[in-house]
């Protein structure tokens, strides 16, 4: 089901690629992809404004998500999910241990901060490389099997990494506390301590990642954060590379693996180098996400390697739409929004909202809503996930497509020509 | 695809609107005051970051109750609780420095990452000036480091590992709760008195940071008085069945089992050990004994009657003032207002969080400013009384509170589910005090206070 809806538009540019190239595709992207890329670029650029739609003092400000930490998380987990989707969406290999690469990348990044200095570029480079090396090893072993056995193997490796990081490797990983910076770190290329005697903060050529300008327009307040825009830029590069990869012959090969690996072998092609390639690339994306995470907040905890974290990226991808370009980013955004915003609604907030009701009714309504917010955010997310999987098997992207189709059908005959194209 | 025409007029119009928007008064929030999240208007926001899900959710819920109570008392609602017994009389129920106290809550999930995300959202989104709470040392250390970076004050909740005020101490972080070393120092003489000086101990240790420091503390203080450590075995934190770890204990020649476990781990390992019949056994001609270094009422409730007769240490107990007199004033005042509001006595997690909130409020009042550096200065070397633990010192060298430690034992015939432990003795503060450069605490430095941007 999912396969058809996604692969139909996806195959089209590949089939017509010589044509588009002759017409002079911008940035090497077909017009449709360019549109999508520019759309995502626009969204990330304006995110601080789009995510803070409510005035800072209003009661709805609870739902504002435009603060640096959450915005950074949106794009970082977006990168993570984009990378995961290269493996899962294209080859159909469901890795259940991708968080291990994120964690390994984080640890590598923090160690660079401890040893080299607080510039984020060496840290991110180290994260990507280390995660890449790990994924070569884990991928080489795990990819000997497919289907559920592959999932279990990756899960086992990831849990092994977690258990090692949590206890046995405590000197390297900091164990339960997490790996953090200290004043006594060498930092050979940078200052061990800032001028005020504190641990320096991550920076890019001297620009601190946490630097934030608060923009106040009337009642609204928007935070423009250096770290966020850095992450956003990295995500756009990652997104661009993912588009190119989806449309490349390599991507075509990966789709072939997904549709029928046996047939691929019968035609005399060895699929393993391709799947390993995809596995390593997506592992490096995860490492990149890990490196960015510690660049924004220089502490690496072992929990980010736990199986729940691996499961989360699977949820993100499926919720948004596996195999689509923008789906994983959307899914990442929705899940992180729930985790950070819904989990903070407590009873006193609820009582504030329903204060206009008579007392008995107020308590009743609060009691009804209570299990779904605060610590019950998992429940809300779970219900939503079920609804999406049952009614929109293609994820949120399919929801968007259905909406736009509905909209176009209503708006009369002049759009019929555009409506025809995706059905091709 | 529709084609978009970019016209000159369009560009100029968009540019003019955007320019006008940007030209509106804009400023950096921090520049007005010189420190992060300076309170605006007539309220001040505190952030209470507690585990609401996960293994310590019970502790978290009790901490949150205490925080709510503290906020009510600071705002002059209810009966004022410990404000009446506190040795400082600066807090008069008008909030902090005349500003009404408001609070936001978050879920640490007992994971460093989640706790930091939650704390960051409190700081960046809600403008919290102080973060408090937590029920795990890993989380406390992680959030403390974050608060140091962000330039706000961290008042640690329940965290018992030496590292919080040892190798991971920070200038902006303060701990009222006691630590592993103090547990060891308080328990050792009582263990020697109760069980003799020639015992052989077998340690089961939860395989993470707190487990290590607790094992080290108990080992060094019991070995100093003549005990021998036969073996120390690490158990995975996720373990729920400890039978395979308990079975070899008797064969090892040990006659005391020390369970360096907390929360669900401790409930399970203790239950396994008791069901194994360890306490009916004799080894080396002596009665076999079990010791649990860090006790809590919530764990005692979980372990039920298995806890009977087992020794451990606590930061505070709700019966202190009743049983040991007015030295521990404040205890009854707190227990009374907590009990009236919620219908049962508070746990030590609730107590430490309540006290931390009052201490912060008082320090701000004495400093006359919310500036973190002024607050740090006010808290360093601060001596106080009347908050339930007797005379207490917030030491300047490591931001650790020094006070008496309560040694407790599981009650034989508990009258109700809140009266599960009896106080054996209170180890005076002198016996649990250590030098700031003690080997168990070495390797870190406070740095300097950070007031943020």
Automatic annotation (TrEMBL), chain A:
Membrane topology: Multi-pass membrane protein
Cellular component, GO annotation: plasma membrane
Region (Disordered): 1-23
Top-level taxon in the UniProt lineage: Bacteria
Keyword Ribonucleoprotein: no
MF term (GO), any: branched-chain amino acid transmembrane transporter activity
Residues annotated as transmembrane: 34-54, 74-96, 116-141, 148-169, 226-246, 273-294, 314-338, 350-373, 379-400
Subcellular locations according to the entry: Cell membrane
Statement: the UniProt record of this protein carries the keyword Cell membrane: yes
Pfam families registered for this protein in UniProt: BPD_transp_2
Record InterPro entries: ABC_transp_permease, LivM-like
UniProt keyword annotations, A-Z: Cell membrane, Membrane, Transmembrane, Transmembrane helix
Name this protein carries in UniProt: Leucine/isoleucine/valine transporter permease subunit
Species the sequence originates in: Roseivivax jejudonensis
Lineage: Bacteria, Pseudomonadati, Pseudomonadota, Alphaproteobacteria, Rhodobacterales
Automatic annotation (TrEMBL), chain B:
Pfam family of the protein (one): Peripla_BP_6
Keyword Transport listed: yes
Listed CDD domains: PBP1_SBP-like
The entry's keywords: Amino-acid transport, Receptor, Signal, Transport
Domain Leucine-binding protein stretches: 43-411
SUPFAM superfamilies to which the protein is assigned, alphabetical: Periplasmic binding protein-like I
Gene Ontology annotations of biological process type: amino acid transport
Family the UniProt entry places it in: Belongs to the leucine-binding protein family.
UniProt name for this protein: Receptor family ligand binding region
Naturally occurring in which organism (per UniProt): Roseivivax jejudonensis
């Amino acid at each position: 089901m999912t396969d058809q809806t996604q692969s139909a538009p996806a195959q089209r540019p590949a089939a017509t690629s010589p044509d588009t190239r002759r017409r002079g595709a911008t940035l090497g992207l077909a017009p449709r992809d360019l549109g999508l890329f520019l759309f995502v670029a626009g969204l990330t650029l304006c995110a601080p404004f789009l995510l803070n739609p409510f005035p800072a003092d209003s009661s709805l400000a609870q739902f504002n998500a435009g603060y640096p930490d959450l915005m950074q998380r949106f794009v970082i987990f977006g990168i993570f999910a984009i990378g995961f989707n290269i493996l899962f969406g294209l080859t159909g290999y469901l890795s259940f241990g991708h968080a291990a690469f994120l964690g390994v990348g984080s640890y590598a990044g923090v160690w660079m901060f401890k040893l080299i200095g607080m510039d984020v570029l060496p840290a991110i480079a180290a994260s990507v490389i280390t995660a890449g090396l790990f994924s070569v090893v884990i991928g080489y072993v795990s990819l000997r099997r497919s289907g559920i056995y592959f999932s279990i193997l990756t899960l086992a490796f990831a849990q092994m990494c977690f258990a090692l990081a949590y206890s046995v490797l405590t000197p390297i990983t900091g164990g339960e506390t997490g790996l953090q910076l200290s004043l006594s770190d060498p930092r050979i290329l940078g200052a061990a301590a800032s001028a005020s005697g504190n641990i320096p903060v991550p920076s890019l050529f001297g620009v601190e990642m946490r630097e934030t300008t608060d923009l106040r327009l009337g009642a609204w307040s928007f935070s423009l954060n250096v770290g966020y825009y850095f992450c956003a830029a990295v995500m756009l590069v990652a997104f661009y590379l993912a588009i190119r990869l989806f449309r490349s012959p390599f991507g075509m090969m990966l789709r072939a693996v997904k549709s029928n690996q046996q047939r691929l072998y019968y035609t005399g092609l060895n699929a393993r180098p391709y799947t390993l390639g995809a596995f390593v690339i997506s592992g490096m994306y995860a490492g990149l996400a890990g490196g960015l995470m510690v660049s924004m907040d220089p502490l690496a905890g072992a929990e980010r390697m736990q199986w729940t974290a691996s499961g989360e990226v699977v949820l993100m991808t499926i919720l948004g739409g596996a195999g689509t370009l923008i789906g994983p980013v959307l899914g990442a955004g929705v899940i992180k929004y729930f985790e950070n915003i819904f989990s903070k609604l407590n009873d006193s907030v609820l009582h504030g909202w329903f204060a206009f009701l008579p007392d008995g009714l107020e308590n009743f309504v609060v009691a009804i809503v209570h299990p779904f917010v605060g610590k019950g955010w998992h429940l809300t997310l779970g219900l939503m996930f079920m609804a999406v999987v049952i009614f929109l098997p293609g994820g949120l992207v399919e929801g968007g497509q259905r909406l736009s189709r509905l909209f176009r059908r209503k708006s009369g005959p002049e759009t019929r020509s555009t409506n025809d194209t995706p059905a091709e | 695809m529709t084609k978009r025409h970019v016209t000159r007029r369009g560009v100029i119009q968009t540019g003019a609107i955007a320019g006008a928007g940007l030209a509106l008064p804009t400023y950096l929030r921090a520049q007005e005051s010189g420190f992060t999240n300076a309170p605006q208007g007539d309220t001040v926001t505190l952030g209470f970051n507690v585990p609401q899900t996960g293994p310590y959710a019970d502790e978290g819920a009790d901490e949150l109750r205490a925080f709510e109570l503290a906020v009510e008392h600071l705002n002059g609602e209810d009966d004022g609780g410990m404000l009446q017994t506190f040795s400082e009389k600066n807090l008069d129920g008008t909030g902090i420095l005349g500003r009404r106290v408001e609070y936001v809550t978050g879920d640490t999930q007992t994971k460093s990452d989640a706790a930091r995300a939650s704390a960051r959202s409190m700081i960046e989104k809600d403008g919290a000036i102080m973060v408090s709470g937590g029920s795990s040392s890993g989380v406390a250390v992680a959030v403390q480091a974050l608060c140091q970076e962000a330039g706000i004050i961290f008042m640690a909740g329940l965290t018992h590992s030496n590292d919080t005020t040892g190798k991971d101490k920070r200038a902006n972080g303060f701990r009222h709760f006691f630590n592993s070393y103090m547990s060891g120092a308080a328990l050792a003489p009582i263990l020697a008195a109760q069980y003799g000086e020639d015992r052989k101990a077998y340690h089961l240790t939860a395989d993470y940071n707190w487990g290590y420091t607790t094992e080290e503390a108990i080992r060094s203080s019991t070995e100093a008085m003549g005990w021998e450590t036969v073996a120390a075995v690490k158990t995975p934190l996720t373990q729920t069945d400890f039978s395979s770890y308990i079975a070899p204990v008797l064969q090892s020649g040990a006659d005391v089992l020390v369970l360096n476990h907390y929360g669900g781990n401790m409930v399970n390992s203790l239950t396994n050990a008791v069901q194994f019949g360890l306490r009916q056994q004799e080894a080396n001609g002596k009665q076999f004994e079990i010791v649990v270094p860090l006790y809590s009422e919530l764990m005692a409730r979980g372990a039920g009657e298995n806890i009977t007769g087992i020794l451990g240490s606590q930061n505070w107990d709700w019966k202190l003032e009743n049983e040991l007199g007015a030295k521990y004033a404040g205890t009854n005042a707190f227990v009374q207002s907590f009990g009236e509001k919620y219908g049962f006595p508070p746990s030590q997690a609730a107590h430490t969080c309540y006290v931390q909130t009052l201490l912060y409020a008082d320090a701000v009042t004495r400093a006359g400013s919310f500036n973190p550096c002024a607050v740090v200065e006010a808290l360093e070397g601060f001596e106080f009384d009347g908050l339930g633990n007797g005379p207490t010192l917030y030491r300047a060298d490591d931001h650790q509170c020094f006070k008496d430690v309560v040694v407790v034992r599981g009650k034989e015939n508990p009258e109700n589910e809140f009266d599960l432990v009896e106080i054996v003795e209170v180890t005076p503060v002198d016996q649990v005090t250590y030098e700031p450069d003690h080997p168990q605490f070495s390797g870190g430095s406070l740095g300097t206070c950070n007031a943020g941007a």
